[in-house]
From TrEMBL:
This is alpha-L-fucosidase. GO terms for cellular component: lysosome. GO terms for biological process: fucose metabolic process; glycoside catabolic process. It catalyses: a neolactoside IV(2)-alpha-Fuc-nLc4Cer(d18:0) + H2O = a neolactoside nLc4Cer(d18:0) + L-fucose; a neolactoside IV(2)-alpha-Fuc-nLc4Cer(d18:1(4E)) + H2O = a neolactoside nLc4Cer(d18:1(4E)) + L-fucose. Belongs to the glycosyl hydrolase 29 family. InterPro entries: FUC_metazoa-typ (IPR016286), Fucosidase_C (IPR031919), GH (IPR017853), Glyco_hydro_29 (IPR000933), Glyco_hydro_29_N (IPR057739), Glyco_hydro_b (IPR013780). It comes from the Eukaryota. Residues 404-489 form the Alpha-L-fucosidase C-terminal domain. Residues 1-23 form the signal peptide.
Length: 492
């Protein structure tokens, strides 16, 4: 009895050691509940899984250089989460025309004729971008409802724009005088209210997007015209903001963007060393890779590389596909057409290909200036949630399998978990017969099921192919309406 329990724990320890936990590690066993059952014939079963937290007794001090910053292991919650929601919200949600780059398209270096004309036709001469802020009213912003919707979507984290390139802070920043959500517009702490709602209503992780640069900030423009030899903008604006949002809202993700300028200018490694060594979220926080020129896809936490990054191959570093339901914009657009929005089939195809290659998907919605999440976004989120209720087993905490997509049939992506292989089947197979070229049966113990479907599926081996009979069912009997997941046990 006792000896079996010890053996089990030893096996776990060996596994952890094999996974690179060093000898200084201390095993803190939380809720160590190994319920043993002994029958007359001495058959013993371990009934509950053991929840172990590993704590490094030797505290790592990160140095402000990439070699050190990049050596930090990514907190495991992030890879397990797979699916997050991105929210682009700001003063750009007031004109809500073309995209969140509206101001830049109006008055930046290469104006968009559409936007210039829109301003000429609809606003008086002398109207400034700042004049939009008073109409950022947010009167229908009910963060508790947002939190409920996000929970229903099955997402495990959210990332809200605390400040986009326009510079308007969605929290009452000390360093954004009269250009923040408390002084003008909402007269509310949009960031703080969402943080509170998410944390009190859900177990979703709360993250913040933050733009390092601002298109029109005079200090930034001065620094950049001095070829970044002066750093007034960084010391008076960017870094104080980053410290503020981390200390005040304790985000589990700091999603940096718009870091146009050298890393030394931004002092990104200095900030990250503080974040990892001393900040209130030092053990759990996750960051991305947009910390200065040349960083994307090379340095920081997980890699985002570029927007909608989806390499179609396994990467040797954790990555995220940030994408948006509205193909043309991250911010809300009043004039978006139905066909501009991804369908749930499009989204599940992107999701399956992303997670099978080791990525997470961060899917964006753009709320309106009044604080409404438009029904089209609600529908997509709820569709994701209904699908994940059935198929979450193949998603959360899964890992890439040896093959990412099938070699024979198109539109099949794989994940693996606890010895099982999961095939995401994006299109219902012709004649109900799915042919797979990758899985190999390991004998009579092999079993094929569909998640959410009670009966095992009939299958056979045909040369190097596995043939699987899909349920002969009506649409309403099916466990879900899109992207069915086949679970293969005892296949390799
Ligand atoms: C600007 O600074 C970079 C180094 O950060 C240097 O390589 C480049 O030559 C400088 N450009 C000018 C015009 O001084
Ligand atoms: C960079 O950031 C670190 C941590 O906040 C700080 O100690 C250091 O003085 C900063 N260096 C510069 C050049 O700003
Ligand atoms: C598998 O995915 C790769 C990369 O996306 C693609 O080039 C290839 O055609 C796919 N194979 C099949 C059979 O669809």
């Amino acid at each position: 009895m006792v000896s079996t329990s010890v053996i089990n724990i030893c096996l776990i320890a060996i596994t952890l050691l094999a996974n690179g936990i060093n000898a200084d590690s201390e095993f803190v066993m939380r809720e160590l509940q190994v319920d043993m059952e002994e029958s007359n014939s001495e058959v013993i079963t371990v009934k509950k899984e053991i929840d172990i937290e590993i704590k490094d007794t030797k505290e790592t001090k990160y140095e402000p250089n990439w070699a050190s910053i990049d050596s930090r292991p990514l907190p495991s919650w992030y890879d397990e989460a797979k699916f997050g929601i991105f929210i682009h919200w700001g003063v750009f949600s007031v004109p809500s025309y073309v995209s969140e780059w509206f101001w830049n398209y109006w008055q930046g270096n290469s104006p968009h004729p559409d936007v210039v004309k829109f301003m000429e036709q609809n606003y008086p001469p002398g109207f400034t971008y700042a004049d939009f802020a008073k109409d950022f009213t947010t009167e229908f912003y009910h963060p508790d409802d947002w939190a409920e919707l996000f929970k229903e979507s099955g997402a495990k984290y959210v990332v809200l724009t605390s400040k986009h390139h326009e510079g308007f802070t969605n929290w009452p920043s000390e360093v954004s005088w009269n250009w923040n959500s408390m002084d003008v517009g909402p007269h509310r702490d949009l960031v703080g209210e969402l943080a509170t709602a998410i944390r009190s209503k859900t177990s979703i992780k709360f993250g913040l997007y933050h733009s390092m640069f601002e298109w029109f900030n005079p200090l930034y423009l001065e620094d950049s015209s001095s070829n970044f030899t002066t750093r007034n903008y960084v010391t008076q604006k960017t870094l104080p903001e980053l410290f503020e949002i981390v200390n005040t809202y304790k985000p589990e993700i700091v999603w940096s963007d718009g870091a146009v300028g050298p890393v030394e200018y931004w002092n990104s490694t200095g900030f990250l060393a503080w974040l990892y060594n001393e900040s209130p979220v030092k053990d759990t926080v996750v960051t991305n890779d947009r910390w200065g020129n040349g960083c994307a896809c090379h340095h920081g936490g997980y890699y985002t590389c570029q927007d909608r990054y989806n390499p179609g191959k396994v990467q040797n570093h954790k990555w995220e596909n940030c994408m948006t339901i509205d193909r043309k914009s991250w911010g809300y657009r009043r004039d978006a057409k139905l066909e501009d929005f991804l369908t749930i089939e499009d989204i599940l195809s992107t999701f399956a290909s992303t997670i099978s290659c080791g990525g997470n998907m961060l899917m964006n919605i753009g709320p309106t200036k009044d604080g409404i999440i438009a029904p089209i976004f609600q529908e997509r989120l709820k569709q994701m949630g209904s699908w994940l209720k059935v198929n979450g087993e193949a998603v959360y905490s899964s890992t890439p399998w040896r093959a990412q997509n099938d070699s024979l049939s198109e539109g099949i992506w794989y994940t693996a978990k606890k010895g099982a292989v999961y095939a995401f089947v994006l299109n219902w197979p012709t004649d109900n017969l799915l042919k797979l070229g990758e899985p190999v049966s390991m004998g009579t113990e092999s079993k094929v099921t569909m998640l959410g479907w009670a009966n095992a599926l009939a299958w056979s081996v045909s040369g190097k192919e596995i043939h699987i009979s899909f349920p002969d069912a009506t649409v309403s009997e099916l466990p879900c309406q899109w992207a069915w997941v086949v679970k293969l046990q005892n296949f390799k």
